[in-house]
């Protein structure tokens, strides 16, 4: 097992490098980079005006805004909206953003910093990328943990019950329910929850925004916990609505496959109760694929799919941070978070394999190639 883990750890390096190369090249090709974003802010045509650059646009760059009316040269014409701007101003922007260096040099400089987990600072916020991620992490962790727990606590017992009652009315109507839930987009269900339960039209039972109330810090600890849970009800419901179908059907199919095997027939022939056969023999083997997939499922729920939910419920988490970084072409935030969470995902895949062995020691990865 140790040799397999070492091989997988070594494989993470080229995999991560390849992912970063592909994404870096795609982002460089896309129009509207950081310099064009800054030009739009200088000219007052930017859609989003809350961003910032190190130093003001018209002062710390060393170029007066009034001078931008001069005819630009070739350096200005490389960027959309830069016609007529002073080439010196454009070159200063290129130097400040690091675009005065060749593309390969910029990439390898970035990766050398990322190896040391130095993700730099945001282009348009006066914050380090690490500080931004740490600040937004509690929201995403809250959504991820509660969503994963609820999905697993509901889907596994439901999948077992469906397997035991395969083809019966219970199996049919529960399948219809989970499929309908899977078909409903989470953000659409979130809007419905707001309209019905958050004062949108009918009931005003739950808060509309935020992770906690404004006076949360002044509340006793038990009221803080209740206030936190009160705020999490609607966002978590919106997140879990589509999460039951896949895990429920996976659990059901795993149990059905195991129930049909010879060792189950033998156990029943020995006179063991159905409950003992189901939970004493079938459960361990059937749960192998479900339990082993838990680390990857948690990471997937934690860092993906929550952006619209965060926007709708005004939750300032990682999903919203990534969306704003993509819109503003904030490369340090985009690539820094991509590197970290891709690395985390690759490590979680390895943890999933190790979990397989912990659940069933009969599995031997050493006899297999990576």
UniProtKB/TrEMBL annotation:
Recorded hits in InterPro entries, A to Z, give: MetI-like, MetI-like_sf
Region of interest (Disordered), residue spans: 57-79
Q: Where is the composition biased (Polar residues)?
A: 57-69
Question: Has keyword Chaperone?
Answer: no
Spell out the Pfam families in the cross-references. Answer: BPD_transp_1
Q: Give the residue spans that cross the bilayer.
A: 9-30, 139-160, 172-198, 228-251, 288-313, 333-359
**Membrane association type:** Multi-pass membrane protein
- Please report which protein family the annotation says this sequence is part of: Belongs to the binding-protein-dependent transport system permease family.
Quote the protein name from its UniProt record. Microcin C ABC transporter permease YejB
């Amino acid at each position: 097992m140790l040799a397999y883990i070492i091989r997988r750890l070594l494989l993470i390096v080229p995999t991560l490098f390849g992912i970063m190369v592909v994404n870096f090249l795609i982002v460089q090709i896309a129009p509207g980079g950081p310099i064009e974003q800054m030009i739009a802010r200088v000219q007052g045509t930017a859609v989003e005006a809350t961003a910032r650059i190190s130093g003001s646009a018209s002062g710390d760059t060393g170029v007066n805004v009034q001078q931008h009316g001069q005819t630009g040269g070739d350096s200005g014409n490389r960027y959309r909206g830069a016609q007529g701007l002073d080439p010196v101003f454009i070159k200063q922007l290129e130097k400040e953003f690091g675009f005065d260096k060749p593309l390969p040099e910029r990439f390898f400089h970035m990766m050398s910093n990322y190896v040391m987990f130095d993700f730099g600072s945001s282009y348009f916020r006066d914050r380090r990328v690490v500080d931004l991620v740490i600040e937004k992490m509690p929201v995403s962790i809250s959504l991820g943990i509660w969503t994963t727990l609820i999905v697993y606590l509901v889907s596994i017992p439901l999948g077992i019950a469906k397997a035991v009652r395969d083809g019966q009315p219970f199996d049919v109507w529960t399948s219809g329910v989970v499929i309908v839930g899977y078909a409903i987009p989470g953000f659409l269900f979130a809007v419905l929850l707001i309209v019905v339960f958050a004062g949108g039209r009918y009931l005003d039972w739950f808060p509309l925004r935020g992770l906690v109330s404004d006076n949360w810090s002044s509340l006793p600890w038990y009221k803080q916990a209740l206030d936190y849970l009160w705020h999490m009800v609607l966002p978590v419901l919106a997140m879990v609505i589509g999460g039951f179908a896949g895990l429920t059907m996976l659990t059901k199919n795993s149990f059905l496959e195991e129930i049909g095997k010879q060792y189950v027939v033998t156990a029943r022939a020995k006179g063991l109760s159905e409950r003992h056969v189901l939970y004493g023999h079938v459960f361990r083997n059937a749960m192998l694929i479900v339990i082993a997939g838990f680390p990857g499922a948690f990471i997937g729920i934690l860092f993906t799919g929550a952006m619209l939910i965060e926007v709708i419920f005004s939750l300032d988490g990682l999903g919203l941070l990534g969306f704003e970084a993509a819109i503003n072409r904030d490369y340090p935030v985009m690539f820094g978070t991509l590197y970290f969470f891709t690395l985390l995902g690759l490590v979680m895949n390895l943890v999933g394999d190790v979990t397989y062995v912990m659940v069933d020691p009969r599995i031997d990865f050493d006899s297999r190639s990576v």
